[in-house]
Design brief:
By secondary structure, the chain is of the alpha/beta class. It folds into three domains: 5-165, Flavodoxin domain (Rossmann fold, 3-Layer(aba) Sandwich); 200-380, Flavodoxin domain (Rossmann fold); 420-461, no CATH class. It has 15 helices and ten strands. It has helices at residues 19-30, 45-50, 52-64, 81-92, 115-128, 147-165, 212-224, 262-270, 289-297, 324-336, 352-372, 380-394, 402-410, 421-433, 437-461, and strands spanning 5-10, 35-39, 67-73, 103-109, 132-137, 200-204, 228-232, 275-281, 311-317, 340-346. Strands 2-1-3-4-5 form a five-stranded parallel β-sheet, with helices on both faces. Strands 7-6-8-9-10 form a five-stranded parallel β-sheet, with helices on both faces. α10 (324-336) packs across α12. The radius of gyration is 25 Å and the shape is globular. Flavin mononucleotide binds next to α1. Flavin mononucleotide binds at residues 12, 14, 18-20, 73-77, 109-115, 141, 242, 244, 246, 296, 299.
């Protein structure tokens, strides 16, 4: 195989001290015939943003490359905010052409908490950039320490290089986004909703008062009247995005503490609200990098459900409904917070009259859910995610996430099935009984169906 030029776009805010980059280094060492060039685009995002020559030099390298490795850590079910900003800059500055026709893979490390949504996002970005997306690789962060996993990694890398050398074709797996929104012009407000003395916080990142988003957020604010406070997160002093330093793991102390306004705002306004409405415009295939910065910075709360019992909603301008993973990310976030996601409303496809009604009912439904203290049961997203967190905080992540460990102990979140002694004893006894062929036939052929509903029937009867 002729030597290939590979550009690595490192998405870790930790730069070279990145776990993910150790996987890249391993590939470099064990597939040495190629030319590799890495850029710490997240760590150096301020330079990427301000120094146009530096940005152009990265684009020039991409232009000359045969393949691009998007290497990144998972941050809140997606890429870190800095990486998101880098991607926005590529589109904003008309640099997408540098990527067109290049082969690409996405490589992340994580604890497998919604790694699939991050890779779906990057798959979509690669498709939008006109790249040949050759697949994803998403190991658990410490997999590199196991020989079979190292072998697997090299299998992936070899496959990538062979794809480039053999000019393989890959299907486009995501449809291009179709912006199907019309400018929202709200009609006369007929009736406000009753928030029942609850505090409503509307967070938005709108940049123009005449945008659809601004009109929607104004409408929502008007619906809630005095109960609502609207705040533009562009006005919040945030010195930077999460650095991934996990200094917060011990007791929530963030590296930015005392340096900007985020932590106080979050503790006071976000935690202090009863209903939260997150409002934003779709930028590429997620909300803006500014929103992602706001979300990532909430990591100082670690893995605790700090929005427990709150009503949440999203109001989005743009093609939100065309990205399934986006709804999954919103839903999972609420479920992990033990909050109730009332809905995600968008200006997609709806005319102004219809949107007036949707927004009124959305606000009304939030109030009704708050009145009833309703939090819908969690789905696979929250149940599965909670088990991953529980197991990680109990074992691998107990150190350095001391604050989480204390919280999980205190709030009964270490609900391991091993502790369900009665169920385990019943299970063992039944398995013993089932060893007898006559009893087994009786149980499996006659008793299982009525047996399963019997305890539920008893509840219904009561
Ligand atoms: C702010 C923040 C958010 C994170 N979010 C996720 C997540 O959503 N899913 C996940 O599996 N891991 C998550 N992690 C864990 C990192 O993805 C993981 O530790 C990764 O290996 C770090 O890679 P790096 O050293 O290359 O930055 C998060 C870590 C931080 C600091």
């Amino acid at each position: 195989m002729k030597p290939l030029k590979i550009v690595v776009l490192n998405g870790s805010p930790k730069g070279d001290l990145s776990v993910t980059m150790q996987y890249v280094e391993y590939v470099k060492k064990h597939a040495p015939g190629h030319e590799y060039e890495s850029f710490n685009v997240s760590q150096l995002i301020n330079r990427v943003e301000k120094d146009r020559k530096y940005f152009d030099s990265i684009m020039e390298s991409v232009r000359r490359a045969d393949g691009v490795i998007w290497a990144f850590p998972l941050y809140y079910m997606l890429v870190p905010a800095q990486y998101k900003r880098f991607i926005e800059l590529v589109f904003e500055r008309g640099a997408a052409k540098a990527f067109a026709g290049k082969y690409a893979v996405s490589l992340s490390t994580s604890i497998h908490f919604f790694d699939h949504t991050a890779h779906m996002y990057l798959n979509g970005i690669c498709d939008d950039l006109g790249m040949e997306y050759a697949g994803q690789y998403s190991p658990y962060m410490f997999d590199l320490m196991k020989a079979p996993e190292r072998e697997r990694l090299m299998g992936f890398a070899r496959g990538f290089f062979e794809s480039i050398a053999g000019r393989r074709s890959f299907p486009r797996r995501t449809a291009p986004l179709v912006v199907n929104t019309s400018a929202y012009k709200p009609g006369k407000l007929v009736q406000q909703v009753k928030a029942g003395g609850r505090r409503v916080l509307i967070l938005t990142d709108e940049t123009s008062a005449s945008s659809s988003l601004a009109r929607m957020t104004e409408r929502i604010k008007a619906l809630f009247g005095d109960a609502a406070e609207k705040f533009n997160i562009n006005d919040l002093e945030m010195k930077g995005a999460c650095l991934g330093c996990i200094r917060c793991g011990y007791d929530g102390d963030c590296a930015y503490a005392g340096k900007d306004g985020y932590i106080d705002f979050f503790n006071e306004k976000v935690k202090g609200a009863d209903m939260l409405i997150f409002c934003g415009t779709i930028r590429d295939r997620y909300l803006s990098a500014r929103w992602k910065t706001f979300i990532d910075r909430s990591f100082f709360n670690n893995h605790q459900p700090f929005l427990r019992g709150k009503q949440m909603g999203y109001c989005v301008s743009g093609p939100a409904g065309q990205m399934d993973y986006l709804g999954e990310v919103f839903e999972a976030h609420a479920e992990m917070m033990h909050a109730n996601l009332v809905d995600v409303v968008s200006d997609e496809g709806a005319d102004s009259k219809a949107l007036d009604r949707i927004l009124s009912d959305f606000a009304g439904r939030m109030c009704a859910a708050a009145d009833a203290g309703y939090v819908r049961p969690r789905t696979f997203l929250g149940v599965g995610g909670t088990k991953i967190f529980r197991d990680e905080i109990f074992s691998h992540m107990r150190f350095p996430f001391r604050a989480d460990h204390e919280y999980y102990k205190k709030h009964g979140m270490y609900d391991f099935p091993q502790k369900k002694f009665k169920m385990r004893a019943i299970g063992t006894a039944m398995l013993l009984l089932a060893k007898v062929p006559r009893i087994r036939r009786e149980i499996y052929r006659k008793q299982i169906k009525p047996g399963m509903v019997a305890p539920l029937k008893a509840v219904v009867a009561r």
